[in-house]
């Protein structure tokens, strides 16, 4: 479940969901209408993932029964079909990634302070649930102790594993052994949405480097390396262009279909069939809008338009330091002036995803841009309504990052 889903797209009527798509033009128009919901930027949310370990031995495999017992009535139905799937106390749905990583997704909130309050309450509750079963949340964004192994046995994740395996090992790693911190922001008004999209996308290499928290095999963010290499048509960054809506719609329709939900236990993985091929008659039955919605859910670039902007490129952070990148990103997109400053600083390095993931702030071009945007964000942060003590805590963390970028 995504952070802003209660406002964007949950109420589609059944007739629309089952409507047959006639051609590419209709399909691209549909993508544009559901992925970019314009309006004043008033809501935000956060999605936080963590790898789960046994407290006494992080090398031990995580067992499904142990996790189910720990989560109790909050267990997602992807792990226990009979679970009541009760949200956490602040209302956040609890979900699981394929390797058993836990995820909190806040409900849409009108302020950063309310996002923080929701995460803090639900994270404390989740940590206590896990601790009672001898489990802890990892402070890194990749699993340093165990080989990737799928815990969830669902048709979707089986199909993903089949599709990614021929490409290389990174798909299984991404699915089962990584954890991200995601921030969800409104698209904005039509006259400002292209700039917000470009700024969020161009910021990617800078924030990947600044908040890299998955060192391994010579990479500062081995998590981002795995994401980018998983399945390039669906996982590489989108281009920064004047018409992001049209470019995204084209990309979606030209991306291979990961799976067709034509069975109960095992779904078909049609090798090489793009959604455009399906529209052109590659299968006996033409696709529906419901099929296209599902195809959209299998796209996972670092920034995904999902009715809102789902920023997916930040590594999960240790302890309560997750607040710093969430606050920084929100502050940087808070006004047209800060957005323009981000574009000026980051467009020259907006394509340096690999150097940023590999070298972090040791990449001098990325570090220079990071110094600029951290300064811009720090100046905007006091207007975010977090209160003096928390603002000072985050500013101290940003000062540390400034020093690192300058070193």
Describe it for me?
The chain is an alpha+beta fold and 407 residues long. The chain is built from 18 helices and eight strands. It has helices at residues 14-17, 24-35, 64-71, 112-131, 155-164, 170-176, 190-202, 204-210, 222-230, 232-235, 244-254, 275-279, 289-297, 323-332, 336-346, 353-359, 364-380, 388-406; strands at 44-50, 52-54, 94-96, 102-105, 135-137, 180-185, 303-305, 309-315. The strands form two sheets. The protein has a six-stranded antiparallel sheet with strand order 3-4-1-6-8-7, with helices on one face. 48% of the residues are buried.
Strand and helix order: HHEEHEEHEHHEHHHHHHHEEHHHHH
Strand order of the largest sheet: 3-4-1-6-8-7
Radius of gyration, in Å, reads: 20 Å
What is the number of helices? 18
Number of beta strands? 8
End-to-end separation: 40 Å
Unreliable stretches (pLDDT < 50, length at least 5) are 5-15
Outline, from the CA principal axes? globular
Q: Structural class of the secondary structure composition? A: alpha+beta
Strand percentage: 5-15%
Q: Indicate the mean pLDDT.
A: 94
Helical amount = 40-55%
């Amino acid at each position: 479940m995504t952070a802003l889903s209660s406002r964007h797209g949950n109420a589609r009527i059944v007739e629309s969901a089952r409507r047959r798509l006639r051609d590419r033009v209709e399909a691209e128009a549909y993508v544009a209408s559901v992925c970019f919901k314009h309006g004043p930027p008033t809501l935000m949310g956060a999605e936080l993932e963590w790898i789960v370990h046994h407290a006494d031995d992080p090398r031990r495999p995580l067992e499904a029964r142990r996790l189910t017992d720990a989560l109790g009535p909050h267990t997602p139905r992807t792990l226990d079909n009979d679970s009541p799937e009760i949200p956490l106390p602040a209302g956040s749905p609890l979900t699981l990634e394929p390797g058993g990583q836990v995820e909190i997704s806040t409900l849409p909130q009108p302020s950063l302070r309310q996002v923080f309050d929701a995460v803090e309450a639900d994270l404390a509750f989740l940590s206590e649930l896990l601790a009672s079963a001898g489990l802890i949340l990892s402070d890194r964004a990749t699993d340093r102790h165990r080989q990737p192994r799928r815990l969830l046995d669902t048709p979707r994740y089986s199909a993903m594993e089949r599709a990614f395996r021929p490409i290389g090992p990174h798909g299984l790693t991404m699915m089962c052994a990584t954890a991200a911190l995601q921030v969800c922001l409104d698209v904005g008004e039509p006259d400002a949405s292209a700039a917000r999209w470009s700024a969020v996308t161009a910021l990617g290499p800078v924030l990947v480097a600044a908040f890299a928290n998955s060192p391994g095999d010579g990479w500062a963010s081995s998590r981002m390396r795995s994401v980018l290499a998983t399945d390039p048509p669906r996982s590489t960054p989108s281009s920064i262009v004047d018409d992001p809506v049209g470019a995204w719609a084209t990309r979606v329709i030209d991306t291979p279909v990961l799976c067709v939900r034509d069975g109960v236990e095992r779904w078909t993985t049609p090798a090489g069939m793009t959604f455009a091929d399906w529209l052109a008659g590659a299968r006996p039955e033409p696709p529906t809008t419901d099929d296209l919605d599902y195809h959209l859910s299998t796209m996972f670039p670092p920034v995904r338009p999902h009715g809102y902007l789902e920023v997916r490129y930040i590594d999960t952070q240790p302890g309560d330091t997750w607040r710093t990148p969430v606050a920084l990103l929100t502050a940087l997109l808070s006004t047209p002036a800060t957005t323009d400053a981000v574009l000026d600083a980051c467009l020259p390095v907006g394509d340096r995803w690999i150097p940023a993931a590999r070298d972090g702030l040791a990449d001098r071009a990325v570090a220079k841009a990071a110094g600029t945007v951290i300064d811009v964000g720090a100046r905007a942060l006091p207007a975010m309504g977090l209160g003096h003590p928390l603002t000072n805590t985050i500013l101290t963390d940003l000062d540390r990052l400034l020093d690192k970028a300058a070193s």
